[in-house]
User: Fold this.
Amino acid sequence: MQDISEFSRRTGKKIGFVPTMGYLHEGHCALMIKARDESDIVITSIFVNPAQFSPNEDYNDYPRDFLRDYHICKSCGVDYVFYPDTKEIYPNDYYTYVNVNALTETLEGKYRPEHFKGVTTIVLKLFNIIKPHFAYFGQKDAQQAAVIRKMIKDLNLDIKLKVSETVREVNGLAKSSRNTYLTAEQKEEASALYKALNEGKRLVLKEKMYDTKELKKEIKKFIETNSPDSSLQYIAVTDNNNLEKISNLKDYKGGVLISLAAYYGKTRLIDNILFEK
Ligand code: AMP
Assistant:
């Protein structure tokens, strides 16, 4: 892979890279199509990264289907699919991890303490293998995008981060490989999450609800009313770069990120909405 990338770079080609954990859906395809549009060579990686799962999470159950993914990659114009073996990435004597502090301790990081260390480690390794000019990530994982942005800046990586908006089902549910765990009824109910986030946006922009404690209470109420089978883990109102909590939006100017996580049975879903105030 490094030889192919090196050759491409030497011949003046721009490499666009889309890292994924596979079981691809239209959200991944949107990133590949954007990469196809903006780069000469498009490379996608498919790797379910054990380092970003904690022992009680779904690493073993995570859906995998390489052939299906391979055909999707082809149809989205991907030139190379990088599909390494776990032992190749993490041999028995693997000891090195990279961590972004502060940003990884809030939101998702609070409930998944080792998660982002695993993410930044694999992404940096993949960057070193693929040597991309552009790296494509989804706003669906807003904190992940912010953490990678920070890693690129702090470690002076010569890579341009491109973040694409979340692709959704018709009912608003964010596309996710984990949606395969949901029943048809749960998929319908879980659409309440995005509706609730939109309601939050409306309350801020139209009703001028600036006290974020009150705002979060309203969003929670909306979810409990419209999706009684959900179990909300957190809602947070932050800025989109440093992910710092905003307690009152009255004098705040800039991007407002409302993010949440909720369980449907054992399935954990995340979603967010980003808007300008
Ligand atoms: P994953 O395979 O879940 O690790 O996701 C790989 C990349 O696709 C990440 O940058 C995600 O943020 C992005 N992604 C996942 N779901 C969506 C979606 N519904 N819309 C846009 N991007 C997404």
In short: The mean pLDDT is 98. The CA atoms of residues 23 and 65 lie 6 Å apart. The pocket of adenosine monophosphate is lined by residues 20-21, 27-28, 30-31, 137-138, 140-141, 164, 166-167, 174-177 (CB under 6 Å).
